[in-house]
Amino acid sequence: MRFSSLLVASSAVIALVAVAAASQNPEPSGVVEVVPSADVTFQPLNPARGDAGPQAGVLWGDIREDVPTGTIIRFKPGFSSPPHIHNITYRAVVISGAVHNDDPTAEPMWMGPGSFWTQPAGATHITAAREDAGLSSAFLEIQEGPYLVQPKDRAFANGEFPVNVEAGNIVWIDAEDVAWVDAPGATEGADQPKMAFLWGAPADTEKNGTFLKLPAGFEGTITGGDAWLRAVVISGTATHQAPGLSEATPLDPGSYFGSRRATEHAVTCTGAEPCIFYMSAEGKYEVSRS
């Protein structure tokens, strides 16, 4: 089965510290990166608050620079930020626990694992972690930087609006239900890959974000286009094997793999539950079952 996606400077209030995660099992050319969650280094977002504040572990890029960046953020139970803004728009996916991100006057809407939200640049908001949900974590992505946290009196309107989608409201699409999917022999049911559109335009060269759900036991490949492909494990357990390597790398939630040109990634969903990936891409990617 083949599943093909057409998507598929002001001063900061908080001093940000970014540590680039070391790539594991890279190709000699440096085209492929694989980073298990255990190899991600976390440091305080706000050194003044230390361990009491959120912790950041960078998967790729550098949140201090004007480059695309993917970061895992961890929140202690009961954490709540003061009202603030960001200088740039970010997108995020809950990995564990329960997170609330909204206008300071909004009633809490706790989003569980697999939920997706966007935070427009300049909009005042708070971010909180539910106290009884254990350690909460989320994947955060920016397309440009640096990522700054600034006081609410610098709020501005940039024409974008926030999005909060709880995991239960994600719309999953079967391969055979999408006109641009090449999936010969696909049948309905839980045993085929599914996709959910999150942002971006369905064009060959456009940046975009999607969820990709692989059924338990899936063995196959994910092939990136000619440019950007990043895949972050949101739920489930998987293995990844890069071209030319004899051993596969185990990946759990908070891990990622990626490539900077057309590359075939061998992926197996090893656990009893489906594997959900957040896919950040330029243009399309393809999923084929072995």
Task: Note down, in words, how this protein is organized.
- The protein is mostly beta strands and 290 residues long.
- It contains no helices and 24 strands.
- The protein has strands spanning 2-5, 32-35, 43-44, 55-60, 69-75, 84-86, 90-96, 99-102, 116-119, 126-129, 136-142, 149-151, 163-165, 173-174, 194-200, 207-214, 219-223, 229-235, 238-241, 249-251, 256-259, 264-269, 275-282, 285-289.
- Strands 2-21-18-23-16-15-14 form a seven-stranded antiparallel beta sheet, with no helix packed on it.
- A hairpin with an 8-residue loop joins β4 (55-60) and β5 (69-75).
- The radius of gyration is 18 Å and the shape is globular.
- It starts with a strand and ends with a strand.
- The model is unreliable at 1-29 and 179-186 (pLDDT under 50).
Quick structural gist:
With 290 residues, the chain is mainly β. It has strands at residues 2-5, 32-35, 43-44, 55-60, 69-75, 84-86, 90-96, 99-102, 116-119, 126-129, 136-142, 149-151, 163-165, 173-174, 194-200, 207-214, 219-223, 229-235, 238-241, 249-251, 256-259, 264-269, 275-282, 285-289.
Distance between the terminal alpha carbons, to the nearest Å?
8 Å
Globally, the shape reads globular
Major sheet: size, sense and barrel closure?
7 strands, antiparallel
Overall pLDDT score = 85
Q: Into which percentage range does the β-strand content fall?
A: 35-45%
Structural class assignment: mainly beta
> Taking Cα atoms only, what radius of gyration do you get, to the nearest Å?
18 Å
Low-pLDDT parts are 1-29, 179-186
The helix/strand order is EEEEEEEEEEEEEEEEEEEEEEEE
Structure summary, number of beta strands: 24
Total number of helices: 0
Widest sheet: strand ordering: 2-21-18-23-16-15-14
